[in-house]
């Protein structure tokens, strides 16, 4: 009886880290305690490193501030954004787990239409542990969900699917809008709960939001670089989208999948649209060049690892987007630095990684 009443072990308890970027006390974790407490947290403190961040008792966590980033990466710390939530990708780099879930500190537990609390982390895990179908669209969306299957006419040769690298969750309440849309729709709220998960087709880009996102770090981690944004840079609020565009190009090339849809979280705080407009201003123009660039990217056949793909992507960013603005030359440099830093902190077993060559025994 005792064993029957004991709570089941949470899925992937020892294989997943939760990464949270923040500038404030993490009181929001109290609402997530039933779902997050069994897992290890990596907290990346942005802004003033002398400020003390309070974390509720009972959570297993490690906290890194800018001093830690500088100490651990040395000159390569230049690739980690400052005063921007893009700093979260440092947490991806230092994690030693297979999976990552990242969430913003203004996101809370949402309820499904029946009024039940949504365990977002559990749903992301289900998404990551089931295959994706990027090569042929299933009109019943995710065929691996309970009560669904492949529809008539779906090729049997494709029904096994491919590994899922990314699970992109959504949000109720405050929509993830850009500044111009915020300004013209200041009171709009997302109340539509769509009970669906779908694989984003191969060759299709999407605007990735980092506030409710999970991924297989071993499959795609080195591509999850949130760019060079924030303090000292001419652009902000494009960090997660940059990572999403790079990641989607690479997952397409490597035959991996990206899912979007469930789970939902409750996004509680609308950021200031005028502040956002200053951050996004260049990006609103540049994205008209960025999207065609990513749509036309071709990676060579010998780019068989995420790192090789990413370094090739950095080369093409410099060659083609450097003409749009000098910032993209700087971004290309930081992409290379990111891979070098990643490989230093995550050497392959039995060797020390080098970004542009085989590991040294």
- Rounded Rg: 20 Å
Mean pLDDT: 94
What's the total count of β strands?
Answer: 11
Run of helices and strands: HEHEEHHEEHEHEEHHEHHHEE
Present the secondary structure layout.
Elements: H1 2-5, E1 16-22, H2 29-36, E2 40-45, E3 60-64, H3 66-73, H4 89-94, E4 99-103, E5 107-108, H5 120-129, E6 164-173, H6 179-184, E7 197-199, E8 212-216, H7 217-220, H8 239-254, E9 257-267, H9 273-296, H10 306-321, H11 327-345, E10 352-354, E11 357-360
Parallel strand pairs: 1-2, 1-4, 2-3, 6-9
Antiparallel strand pairs: 4-8, 5-9, 6-8, 7-9, 10-11
Helix pairs in contact: 10-11
Characterization of this structure:
- The strands form two sheets. Strands 1, 2, 3, 4, 5, 6, 7, 8 and 9 form a nine-stranded mixed β-sheet that branches.
- The relative contact order is 0.13.
- The radius of gyration is 20 Å and the shape is globular.
- The protein has one domain (16-345): Spore Coat Polysaccharide Biosynthesis Protein SpsA, Chain A (Alpha-Beta Complex).
- The protein is 34% helix and 17% strand.
- It has helices at residues 2-5, 29-36, 66-73, 89-94, 120-129, 179-184, 217-220, 239-254, 273-296, 306-321, 327-345, and strands at 16-22, 40-45, 60-64, 99-103, 107-108, 164-173, 197-199, 212-216, 257-267, 352-354, 357-360.
- It is built from eleven helices and eleven strands.
- With 361 residues, the protein is of the alpha/beta class.
- GO terms for molecular function: UDP-arabinopyranose mutase activity.
């Amino acid at each position: 009886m005792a064993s029957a009443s004991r709570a089941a072990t949470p899925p992937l308890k020892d294989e997943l880290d939760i990464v949270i970027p923040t500038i404030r006390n993490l009181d929001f974790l109290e609402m997530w305690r039933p779902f997050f407490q069994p897992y290890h947290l990596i907290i990346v403190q942005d802004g003033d490193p002398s400020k003390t961040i309070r974390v509720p008792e009972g959570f297993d966590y490690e906290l890194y501030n800018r001093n830690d980033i500088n100490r651990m990466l040395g000159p390569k710390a230049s690739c980690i954004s400052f005063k921007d939530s893009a700093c979260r990708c440092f947490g991806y780099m230092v994690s030693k787990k297979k999976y990552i879930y990242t969430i913003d500190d203004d996101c809370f537990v949402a309820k499904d239409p029946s009024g039940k609390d949504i365990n977002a982390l559990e749903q992301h895990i289900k998404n990551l542990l089931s295959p994706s179908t990027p090569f042929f669209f299933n009109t019943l969306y995710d065929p691996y969900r309970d009560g669904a299957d492949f529809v008539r006419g779906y090729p049997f040769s494709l029904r096994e699917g491919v590994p899922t690298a990314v699970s992109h969750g959504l949000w109720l309440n405050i929509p993830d809008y850009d500044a111009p849309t915020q300004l013209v729709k200041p009171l709009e709220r997302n109340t539509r709960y769509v009970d669906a998960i779908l694989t984003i087709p191969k060759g299709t880009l999407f605007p990735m939001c980092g506030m409710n996102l999970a991924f297989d770090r071993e499959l795609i981690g080195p591509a999850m670089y949130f760019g060079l944004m924030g303090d000292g840079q001419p652009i902000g609020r494009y960090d997660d989208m940059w990572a999403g565009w790079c990641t989607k190009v690479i997952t397409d090339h490597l035959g991996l999948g990206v899912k979007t849809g469930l789970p939902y979280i409750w996004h509680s705080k609308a950021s200031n649209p005028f502040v956002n407009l200053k951050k996004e201003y260049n990006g609103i123009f540049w994205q008209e060049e960025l999207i065609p660039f990513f749509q036309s990217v071709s990676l060579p056949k010998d780019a068989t690892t995420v790192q090789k793909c990413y370094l090739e992507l950095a080369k093409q960013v410099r060659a083609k987007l450097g003409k749009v603005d000098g910032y993209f030359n700087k971004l290309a440099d930081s992409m290379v630095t990111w891979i070098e830093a990643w490989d230093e902190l995550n050497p392959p077993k039995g060797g020390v990684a080098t970004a542009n060559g085989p590991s040294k025994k």
